[in-house]
Write a structure and sequence with these properties.
133 residues, alpha+beta, 3 helices, 3 strands, 18% strand, binds zinc ion
């Protein structure tokens, strides 16, 4: 699996994004990220149960593709037919894009909430000033 790329979150104009806009954008983006998978796809040698297997005896074994990873505390490994490899690769790419999307949305959500709060606070301050005078 290629190393995760560390990309900076692109700077956008902050302040005019509402959290509802972000939610819509997130849901639209997520709907395109299917299928998804996490873990790593690799070719591993496995041995068979046959006696006197030339492939096993030569050390070549029987290479098979598998999806390996962790789900919570559990490790998983699933063998995969070679024909399924391209779609699993795409699912892994989508899985990484989803994680990146979540991080980016977290930043933009926080920025949007911060500016909402500061707008609320300045409104509250100006209205309390009006009441006093
Ligand atoms: Zn064998």
């Amino acid at each position: 699996m290629p190393a995760m790329q560390r990309k900076r979150v692109p700077r956008r104009r902050v302040g005019k994004e509402s959290t509802e806009d972000l939610r819509q954008e997130f849901l639209a983006a997520v709907s395109k990220l299917w299928p998804v998978a996490g873990g790593s796809l690799s070719l591993r040698k496995s041995s068979c149960v046959r006696e006197r297997c030339t492939a096993c005896e030569s050390g070549a074994g029987h290479p098979r593709y598998g999806l390996w990873g962790r789900s919570g505390r559990e490790r998983f490994s699933l063998y995969i037919a070679e024909e399924m490899v391209p779609e699993l690769e795409q699912a892994l790419v989508n899985g990484q894009a989803l994680q990146q999307l979540v991080r980016e949305m977290g930043v933009r959500y926080t920025q949007a909430r911060r500016s909402e709060r500061s707008e609320e606070q300045s409104k509250r301050q100006s209205s309390s000033r009006r009441k006093k005078s």
